Amino acid sequence: MSGEYQQCESVDHLVLAGGSILLFDDHFTRLSPLGAYIFMRAEEPQTIDSLAAALTAVFGAPTHGSTVEATRVAVASLVEQGVLQKADDG
Amino acid sequence: MRFSELGSQPLVDAATRAWSRCLGNLTASRTALPLDFRSQSGDTNLELMLAMQALTQEVTQRLIATQMGRLLLLHAGAVSHPVTGQSLVFVAPGGTGKTTLGCVLGRTYGYLTDETVGIDDDGRIWPYPKPLSLRMPGGGPKREASPDDLGLAGAHRAPTVKKVIVLSRPPSHSGPPVIQELDTLDAVQQMLPETSSLGKLPRPLATLAALAEQGGPVLHCSYAEADDLVALAGELIGTVP
């Protein structure tokens, strides 16, 4: 995975203390606070490195492994859920 | 409605009886596309039941199409307290017992619907007292039964949402109902699959969250028998003297 990622277009977004729910035309998904933060940051295209730096600043470094790798895994999951897309796919 | 083999009158008669709670004294009329039902089996009673079932589905679909973007539409049943109008909305997917529960609670509380609950911004429920779609022993088409024939109480004039419960009826459940309070996010997540055209509302998720927070937390209820929920209904919307 390389390049930049940005939000997929959603119908609505509900943010509460325990996380958030995104509503799309054909599905919805619930995000953890970390996933919700990535989604919010990706309003503008973001690289994995830029997201990793932002996540470290807000949530701290992961207990195991590198921040960049953990971010890559999180972004891949969000892409699979239809929450994020490659910036040049939009 | 056109019922090709018998002529339309038997279907009109049956529909007029089954839909008695939804008929009004209209001062205006509106033309809709006709519904055609054609006999396949030659069994008149079976064909009439199939036509009645198809009519219910068609009317419900047209209702949803008309009200989307105006009302919050939930796949749910509802009953209202006859004096206060405070209402219990039970959200559930098909096959979870909404109709049976509507029959049981409707003996005491006003029957609002067994399938589609429409709620406006003020929390008012717009009743849809359609025929109750009863599963028949051995399967086959459902019987569309008039709430009048089932002895169900009439809807309050201005029912409002008092409490929302999300129902599940797992085959493994036995004994009394198990109740769990849902936080707002869990409640929205569990109600979302049971909404119709939610995205057409101006603020869909905020609307659903507001409903979830109205009257205290939404309850998740696992149960086995509808009769087991009568006492719970009394606790939630008040008993009827």
Identify the overall geometry of chain A.
Answer: globular
Bin the helical content of chain B.
25-40%
Q: Which structural category do the helix and sheet elements of chain A fall into?
A: alpha+beta
The two chains with the largest interface, and their residue counts, are: A-B, 13 and 14 residues
Main sheet: strands, sense, barrel of chain A: 3 strands, antiparallel
Taken as a percent bin, the fraction of beta residues of chain A is: 25-35%
**Structural Rg of chain A:** 12 Å
Rounded to the nearest angstrom, the distance between the terminal CA atoms of chain A is 16 Å
Number of helices of chain A: 3
How far apart lie the N and C ends of chain B? 43 Å
- Mean pLDDT level of chain A: 92
Largest sheet of chain B, if any?
A: 9 strands, mixed
Oligomerization: heterodimer
Describe this structure in words.
The complex is a heterodimer of chains A (90) and B (241). Chain A has 90 residues and is an alpha+beta fold. Chain A is 39% helix and 26% strand. In chain A, the strands form 2 sheets. In chain A, strands 5-1-6 form a 3-stranded antiparallel beta sheet. In chain A, a hairpin with a 4-residue loop joins strand 3 and strand 4 (28-31). In chain A, helix 2 packs across helix 3 (67-80). The longest helix of chain A has 14 residues, at 67-80. The two termini of chain A are 16 Å apart. With 241 residues, chain B is an alpha+beta fold. Chain B has helices at 9-18, 44-67, 98-105, 184-191, 204-213, 230-237; strands at 2-3, 36-37, 72-80, 86-91, 110-113, 116-119, 125-126, 132-134, 143-145, 160-168, 178-181, 195-196, 219-222. In chain B, the strands form 3 sheets. In chain B, strands 3, 4, 5, 6, 7, 10, 11, 12 and 13 form a 9-stranded mixed beta sheet that branches. Chain B has a two-stranded parallel sheet with strand order 1-2. Chain B has a two-stranded antiparallel ribbon with strand order 8-9. In chain B, strand 1, helix 1 and strand 2 (36-37) form a beta-alpha-beta unit. The interface between A and B is medium-sized, with 13 and 14 residues.
